[in-house]
Amino acid sequence: MIIFDRFRQALIRPGLLAAGLVLAAAGAAAAQQSPAPLGSPAATRVIDGLQLPAPGVPFGGKIERNALQSTPFWQPRTVPPEGAPNVLLILTDDVGFGAPSTFGGVVPTPALDRIAEMGLRYTNMHSTALCSPTRAALLTGRNHHSAGFGVISEQATGFPGYDSIITKDKATIGRVLSDNGYNTSWFGKNHNTPGFQISMMGPFDQWPTGMGFDYFYGFMGGDTSQWTPGNLFRNTTQIYPSQTQKGFNLITAMADEAIDYLAQLNTLGPDQPWFVYYAPGGTHAPHHPTPEWIKKITDMKLFDEGWNKLRDTIFANQKRLGVIPDTAELTAWPSDLLKDWDKLTADEQKMFIRQANVYAAYLAYTDAEIGRVIDAVEANGDLDNTLIIYISGDNGSSAEGTLQGTPNEVAMFNGVEVPVEVQLKDFYDLWGSEYTYNHMAVAWSWAFDTPFKWTKQISSHFGGTRQGMAIAWPKVITDKGGIRNQFAHVIDIVPTILEVSDIRQPSVVDGIAQSPIEGTSLAYTFDKANAGEPSHHRTQYFEMFGNYALYHEGWSLVDKVKRPSWVTFGPAQPDPATPDWELYDLTKDWTQNTDVAAANPEKVKELEAIWWREAEKYQVLPLDASVTGRIVTPRPSVTAGRREFSFPPRMTGISNGVAPTILSASYTFTAEVTVPEDGGNGMIITQGGRFAGYGLYIDKGKPTFDWNLVGLKNQTWQAKDALTPGKHTIVFDFKYDGLGIATLAFNNLSGIGQSGTGTLSVDGKVVDTQKMEQTIPIILAWDENMDIGSDTGTPVNDKVYQVPFDFTGTIDSLKLVVDHPQLSDADKAKLEAAMKKAAD
Questions:
Q1: Angle between helix 250-268 and helix 346-379 axes, rounded to 10 deg
Q2: 8-state DSSP, 3
Q3: Peptide bond before residue 634 is cis, with ω within 30 degrees of 0
Q4: What Cα–Cα distance (Å) separates residue 755 from each residue in 689, 692, 740, 761?
Q5: Alpha carbon of 837 to those of 253, 314, 525, 840: distances in Å?
Q6: Complete DSSP assignment for 433-454
């Protein structure tokens, strides 16, 4: 590894390393040997790191027939190279470039400000435009398709670039650092375990503890309720602290966990370097700040003048701070897509201001809790030699809130929009509380991406990919408050950490040859003398949902956006491999404002060839423009292909990814129960909760089947009479009217979300029959579980019960039979014809 000697001299013993030389294995081990004799309990060693785990040291003791005449020899403990820094890697969620105060935003983010002021501010950092993909690239140093995360794990498909599996030839930074003697931990969001592998039976090799992290405290999946997280784990054990801790909020709880954990490390091994990956859920929906933060931000009146004025304010702040060039132009407001503020009604303005205040409170709250973690690092005496990398957002601000915002993000993914008048009437005062899964209107998201165009999901334009980043290393970086404008990408973080810690990328891990790291170290930018150095990252492809782009040596070739990022429900563009190119000269046009493709046809042709080369190299193909429809794609979970299921009397925490799905299908639940004198009470089986789900339960003796339709209404089947004491058989049978998910293979959504008829029977007698005019087409509440005999998370019906709603009788038998519709030849012919017509 090439060492930048200006910064390493203060950290490494003189003469140990020379700039430009590759670390020699034997020399490193000898030079960094601890003072304790080899073989003693206190002995340590530095490994060369090329083979992980490193081979043991040959036994150097003596073995006779008796222990008294023998000499023991302990294997030395592996430690990082002398002077290697601690690393605090912070990644927030869904934060646009122009949201935090550090990069011109109006939302106060003093923790990010602090890192920028004691280090460097990076203005040209890029994500992949989406959650899981960015995180996979960040943790492996490889492009997101190379790491199997072309999309989020819930949309995985059976192609190498899209199957949501980080293969064994791409060891994470956690694994590399851990095997080199670091203590490694992960707090917050984990969106990089395949959804179909999140179960108590594993496998666990794709969980944080299986990917090199000694400790994990966080949630599994794309997001969660911060008030009542139903997918929260400590290592591989599911936990439900919100059920017992009044006022619980995960943003604060994970900061407490990280602070306590660092205190333990500081007590037990103060000299052992640590790596903390800190990834809070903020500010991904649902936006869940505390009421105190909502009041604080609301009182500041940051958004009362609307989103058009907000963009102007942010843009002026960015010029004043120097985080965009003086020549940068503010991209035009898309009046053909989004309303101007002064065209809104008073009710719309009132609701939208509330949405923005709650979002901003969430961002400020998240940053404040990050600040507490940084304060703890300082209090422990570790700040001076800690490399802190704070990336503001894993993609641009999210447009998944629809054009008018939503009190329930789950509704949006099922194609349901909630009118402003309903939001004002039913949710205004609740916005941000545990009774909402809230998201803001698209126009706010566009404004928070100032000065760029577009939002999260759009990989071609910087509104989807440009992230603010600050890096501090007090002992080394002397250009306090400096600004760096070099093009960079999240795949550059792993090689940066390896270089500054003087650890090599391994050639072999667990006997498997490692693929090359695809990023470029940013360590050269730490030196003020290199502030104007051209970027070492010369070429970078982008792709998300069939929208793509290429950065190459100051040029940006982008595919014109064909699907607005808030249009997620509907058929996909049939031929994403046919681009409509735009071209931007970034040396003159920082914001991608002026398309020069027509004037530079040869440059377009040159860059297009490079894009296709990169796409083939990094597993980007085949291109797929589908979005929501991919969520229902069958995947290889432990329940895949099964129709019949038998459940025990009690089991909780079966995740969405492995629970049998009954969406867009016929199904039958059969429960044999024994109830007490009062007829019994409690949950028999449920999946989902307050924001979408179902439950078969007994309500004060009355058998009930309850569908929660994305938090907007409940449809309930219930017996009129309470059960008598003793044994009973309860059956809920649903006959679905549609063609099912098989229509998706023809780029047609007509088979999902259709009507059906439900029949509730008790002891062979029909007690209630109802038509369900529309069913949930795509997904239930993803941060909730399937539970039997109890209910974790949130209730399916708040008006009927509260969790855990333990069943007071006995479940003697519980079975589920699912019947997915099968397409006839005539159905297939019609769908083929419709698909061809749409393509033409």
A1: 10
A2: -
A3: no
A4: 21, 17, 11, 20
A5: 53, 46, 54, 5
A6: STT-B-B--HHHHHHHTTTSS-
Is beta strand 51-52 parallel, antiparallel or unpaired with respect to 508-509?
A: parallel
**300 — phi, psi (to 5°)?**
-80, -15
Q: How far apart are the first and last CA of the chain?
A: 54
Contacts of 296 (CB under 8 A, 6+ apart): 361, 364
pTM across the whole model: 0.94
Helix, strand and coil content of the chain, in percent to the nearest 5, comes to 25, 20, 50
Mind listing the pLDDT tens digit for each residue in 537-577? 999 999 999 999 999 999 999 999 999 999 988 788 888 99
Q: Could you write out the three-class secondary structure of 533-555?
A: CCCCCCEEEEEECCEEEEEECCE
CB neighbours (10 Å) of residue 804?
18
How many whole angstroms separate alpha carbon 150 and alpha carbon 160?
Answer: 9
Distance, in Å, from the CA atom of 541 to the CA atom of 548, rounded to the nearest integer, reads 8
Q: How far apart are alpha carbons 557 and 487 in whole angstroms?
A: 15
Q: What is the per-residue pLDDT for 34?
A: 66
**Alpha carbon of residue 347 to chain centroid:** 33
What number is the average pLDDT over the span 200-220?
Answer: 96
b/e string for 530-562 if b means 16 or more Cβ within 10 A? beeeebbbeebbbbbbbbbbbbbeebbbbbebb
How many other C-beta atoms lie within 10 A of the C-beta of residue 201?
A: 8
Q: Which two tokens stand for residue 252?
A: 């604060």
> 373: which strand partners?
none
What 3-state class would DSSP assign to 5? Answer: helix
> What are the angstrom distances between the C-alpha of 110 and each of 116, 372, 374, 741?
10, 11, 11, 48
Q: What is the DSSP string of 260-277?
A: HHHHHHHHH-TTS-EEEE
How far is the C-alpha of 755 from the C-alpha of 740, rounded, in Å?
A: 11
The answer to whether the Cα torsion of 276, 281, 284, 288 is positive or negative is: negative
Is 126 within 8 Å of 111 (Cβ atoms)?
Answer: no
Q: How many residues does the chain have?
A: 840
Other beta carbons within 10 Å of 156: 25
Dump pLDDT digits (tens) for 16-43: 222 222 233 333 333 345 689 999 999 9
- What's the farthest any 2 CA atoms get from each other in the chain? 92
DSSP codes, 567-626: --SSPPPS-TTS--EEEEETTT-TTS-S--TTT-HHHHHHHHHHHHHHHHHTT-PSP---
Cα angle 428, 433, 435 (rounded to 5 degrees) comes to 85
Neighbour count for residue 641 (Cβ, 10 Å):
7
Closest CA relative to residue 624, chosen from 79, 65, 163, 70: 163
Tokens representing 187 are 């707090």
Map tokens 């044999």 to a residue: 672
- Rounded distance, CA 692 to CA 779, Å? 8
Cis, peptide link before residue 14, omega less than 30° from 0: no
Residue 464: strand pairing partners: none
Task: For residue 685, list its beta bridge partners.
Answer: 696, 788
Q: What is the mean pLDDT of the chain?
A: 94
**50 alpha carbon, distance to own chain's centre:** 31
Residues 105, 316: Cα–Cα separation, whole Å: 10
Q: Are 566 and 399 in contact (CB under 8 A)?
A: yes
Of 773, 771, 805, the residue nearest 788 (C-alpha): 805
Q: List strands edge to edge, sheet with 508-509.
A: 51-52, 508-509, 512-513
Check if the beta carbon of residue 797 is closer than 8 Å to that of residue 695: yes
Q: Distances in Å between the alpha carbon of 249 and those of 185, 242, 354, 587?
A: 21, 8, 20, 45
Residue 393, CB-side half-sphere exposure with 13 Å CA sphere:
36
Per-residue pLDDT, 31: 33
Cβ-proximal residues to 54 (8 Å cutoff; 6+ apart), any chain: 47, 48, 78, 179
Q: Give the integer Cα–Cα distance in Å for 367 and 543.
A: 29
DSSP character at residue 107: B
